[in-house]
Write a structure and sequence with these properties.
The protein is an alpha/beta fold. The protein is built from 22 helices and 33 strands. The two termini are 50 Å apart. Bound molecules: adenosine-5'-diphosphate and zinc ion (2 copies). One zinc ion binds next to loops. It is an enzyme of class 5 (isomerase).
Length: 799
């Protein structure tokens, strides 16, 4: 048999199939298997993407060396998907295949020096073991190694390491009959308390064995020493058994008596459209447009139940930030042990275990963030994407895929419906629904018939401020005081972390910037640092201007840390929880903060956009937006869309239960259409208006877009290469196609790389795909000269 392999080198020359002969002893190999193959002088990992009886190749094929896993990690579907996706996102197929696996399964290569001759093996330098070459830095050692290599005393080898570890636990079984244990018990001395305890437990639970060590220790109230002595006596037998790490251990398990919500008319009507597509295995895409609190989740969960009842499995994607304990709890409550959860909050081990449960067919429902779209789930009968407008569904680095596109592909492959849900659908999805490509389903009312909260704008140009800072208006602080008096809760959003956004010198105008990036440094008061939020560079907070030594320096652009300080000053009795990237780095921090707020251990939840979505706290009656303009003027065509979406989403956190809600939005731009329409929470008018803006500006969804970025440490080189690419494009594309740039990117330097970009806007271009693949290929050639070229198909960000 012949195996077709994609090897683990991301390069143009290796971005193709290599054939290997399958030796008889490796006949367990399947499509999707991970294998080791000889490649030149190296040993590499590869993926089997095909098997055949014969090869066209004339010469002698090399043998496969090893099949890594018992069960191939990738399904046939995923192998096919990798091929289709590589073409679409201009990535090498191996990069896609590796993206599909949990991080721990991506191979690690270590370069080592092994002694060859007996003489070399005896050298004190080796001490019998290979040397890890990545750790050798001493020049004398390097020279010595060169000499060994020249004289064939040693050779360089690559060791492929598998970091994926299966977790095991001790398990005890009973080798003897129940009556034997009774006999032992009778013989025990009366002071052998622990042994009596153990034997009592064994006799009572005889039929339940084998049991895990942790369970026996806990229930019999004995320790490991007692178990060990029982093993030595021949009472127990000890084995190791594989166990899964359970990321949901802290969550309530399925309660059979969870209250069954009766769907309202709108929900019923939406479900009535989706159900036939599930039953008839139709690859149809639905756009469920439902205002915040309209009960979209209930529709998803009911559709999933229908899917499971038909013997099919379901995949549900949610944005990372709405993988809140609240959401997970709801799904877990409904489907219990049948679900697996995948997101970046899990440890590598937990992720690996969840992934294996899916691959082994032990779960029926997968809930996860972006990369869960590659879950090795089979027999899929429904795919759901909640908050489909979220830009986090697009991966920002290679491979630059959009989970929505992948989901559409999988929906076709599995002949099953895809449900996209949002209160503020992406313009492109809403436009497709307009054209009938997707089917539009509307939930225009809140599920509990409550009105949407009333929204007030505060014009920061004319506002009176509470305290002596210019951040919190009297109106907002009054409203907060009002809720505090009534023991209701408040959510405050400011989409900017840190204390202050930048340092400005009043004397000379100097702004403190990152030495590696064209970005100002953010002041973090708690860690006493100026930080770059892009590359992580940090330095101490200056006392005087680093440029002119003046002491007249100011820290401007309020962040969450500063608002927290102001709240503590203005409302000392209010308890405030801050939630942003800085307070949620530790595992579990996220859940702790939300649990505390849910238990009313705090009055105010202050945070960045992290708190804008998905949260459902019935006691929250006021939402305040400290500054609505943080994203409004970023130089990107979709800045208005992002702003409208964020404001509408956060406003939707207020007044979700019995009590009526209010929203106060502070802005310098009360007349901007995105803010005016967010005040009315009027998505449909926003859609209509924004579509006209996009039409006038020749932007998506009227045009398709591709962004080509060129980066280099040397600014001229980046510009020159960008102009060369533009010429190449111009000579091959239609005259109606718009090619913008090259221009320096809005942030022209990041991590010491200068960025130039070209934006291609087109309606139909048969040549473009070919051209972009040529550019991708040429990217590898110019890489030697320190030039990096990135191609982003349908970018979410053009800046
Ligand atoms: P969305 O995701 O659309 O913002 P949710 O799914 O979070 O809305 O639902 C909002 C609230 O309404 C939740 O507390 C949910 O339990 C409740 N809810 C959903 N459907 C119904 C229903 N048919 N009757 C009563 N309450 C409902
Ligand atoms: Zn200065
Ligand atoms: Zn930086």
């Amino acid at each position: 048999m012949i195996a077709q392999i994609i090897v683990d080198i991301a390069a143009k020359q290796t971005d193709r199939i290599f054939e290997y002969h399958v030796p008889d002893e490796l006949d367990e190999v399947e499509i999707g298997s991970r294998v080791f193959v000889p490649f030149g002088s190296r040993k590499l990992q590869g993926f089997v993407v095909g098997l055949s009886e014969k090869s066209q190749y004339q010469g002698q094929l090399k043998d496969l060396l090893l099949v890594v896993d018992e069960m191939p990690p990738l399904t046939n579907e995923l192998v096919d998907l990798s091929k289709a996706l590589a073409k679409r996102v201009f990535s090498y197929r191996i990069s896609i295949l590796k993206t599909m696996l949990p991080r721990v399964m991506r191979a690690n290569y270590r370069k080592v020096l092994t002694p060859v001759s007996d003489q070399a093996k005896a050298l004190p330098f080796f001490q019998g073991d290979p040397i890890d070459l990545t750790k050798v830095t001493d020049n004398r050692e390097i020279a010595y190694i060169r000499k060994l290599l020249r004289n064939d005393e040693a050779k360089v080898e690559y060791i492929v390491e598998n970091r994926a570890k299966v977790k095991t636990e001790n398990v005890y079984s009973l080798p003897l009959a129940q009556k034997d244990y009774l006999a032992f018990y009778e013989e025990l001395r009366s002071n052998a308390v622990k042994q009596k305890q153990l034997l009592t437990f064994v006799i009572q639970h005889y039929d339940e064995f084998p049991l895990k060590q942790t369970l026996i220790e806990k229930q019999a109230e004995i320790n490991t020493a007692t178990l060990t002595s029982a093993v030595n006596k021949g009472w127990l037998r000890k084995d190791r058994a594989e166990i899964y790490r359970d990321p949901l251990a802290g969550f309530a398990t399925a309660t059979k008596n969870h209250h069954q919500v009766v769907l309202n008319d709108n929900q019923t009507a939406a479900l009535a459209q989706i159900t036939p597509a599930i039953e008839n295995k139709k690859a149809q895409t639905f756009l469920l447009e439902g205002i915040t609190g309209s009960g979209k989740t209930e529709v998803y969960l009911n559709a999933i139940s229908k899917t499971l009842a038909l013997g099919k499995n379901a995949l549900m994607l949610v944005p990372e930030i709405s993988l809140t304990p609240q959401m997970v709890e709801q799904v877990k409550d409904r489907f219990g042990d049948q679900i697996a959860v995948l997101h970046s909050g899990l440890s590598e081990g937990e992720l690996y275990d969840e992934w294996r449960r899916i691959r082994r067919g032990e779960v029926r429902v997968v809930v996860g963030a972006r990369s869960a779209v590659f879950a090795p789930l089979t027999n899929i009968g429904l795919i759901v994407i909640d908050e489909e407008h979220e830009s986090s569904y697009k991966q920002e680095d290679n491979p630059r895929y959009h989970a929505r596109d992948v989901a559409i592909w999988r929906s076709k492959y599995n002949s099953c419906p895809l449900v996209l849900g949002s209160a503020t659908p992406s313009l492109s999805s809403r436009a497709r629904a307009q054209k009938g490509v997707y089917q539009l389903l509307l939930l225009p009312q809140r599920a509990n018939n409550k009105k949407l909260p009333e929204v007030h704008l505060v014009d920061l140009k004319q506002a009176d401020f509470a305290g002596n800072q210019l951040d919190l208006s009297v109106q907002l602080v009054k409203a907060i005081e009002d809720r505090l008096a009534r023991h209701e809760q408040i959510i405050l959003m400011l989409n900017r972390r840190g204390f202050a956004n930048f340092m400005l010198c009043r004397e000379c105008g100097y702004v403190m910037k990152c030495p590696n990036c064209d970005l100002s440094l953010t002041m973090h008061k708690d860690t006493h640092q100026m930080q770059c939020h892009y590359c992580g560079y940090s330095t101490s907070i200056p006392r005087e201007c680093p440029n002119c030594k003046s002491s007249r320096i100011r820290f401007l652009g309020t962040g969450t840390q500063k608002v927290l300080e102001e709240l503590n000053e203005l409302l000392p009795e209010a308890k405030v929880l801050r939630m942003d990237v800085d307070t949620t780095r530790r595992k579990g921090a996220y859940k702790n903060i939300l649990d505390a707020f849910g238990n009313h251990e705090a009055d105010i939840l202050l945070g960045t956009q992290m708190i804008a979505k998905g949260l459902d706290f019935p006691n929250v009656t006021l939402v305040g937006v400290v500054n609505a303009d943080t994203g409004l003027w970023v130089p990107d065509y979709n800045a208005s869309e992002r702003t409208f979406e964020l404001l509408t989403q956060v406003a939707g956190r207020a007044g979700r239960a019995e009590k009526t809600g209010e929203v106060i939005i502070q802005t310098f731009n009360p007349d901007h259409y995105a803010i005016k329409l967010a005040k009315k929470q009027d998505y449909e008018h926003f859609y209509a208006y924004e579509m006209r803006v996009r039409h006038a500006g020749n932007y998506p969804p009227y045009f398709y877009t591709v962004l080509i970025s060129v980066a280099s440490k040397n600014e001229q080189n980046a510009a020159r290469e960008a102009f060369r690419i533009k010429k190449q494009l111009q000579s091959h594309l239609h005259s109606e196609t718009i090619i913008l740039g090259p221009t320096p990117s809005a942030i022209s330097r990041l991590k010491n790389q200068y960025y130039y970009q070209i934006l291609v806007k087109y309606k139909k271009e048969d040549n473009l795909n070919n051209l972009l693949h040529q550019i991708q290929d040429s990217a590898q050639k110019v890489k030697k000269y320190g030039l990096n070229i990135y191609i982003d198909n349908e970018p979410e960000r053009i800046m």
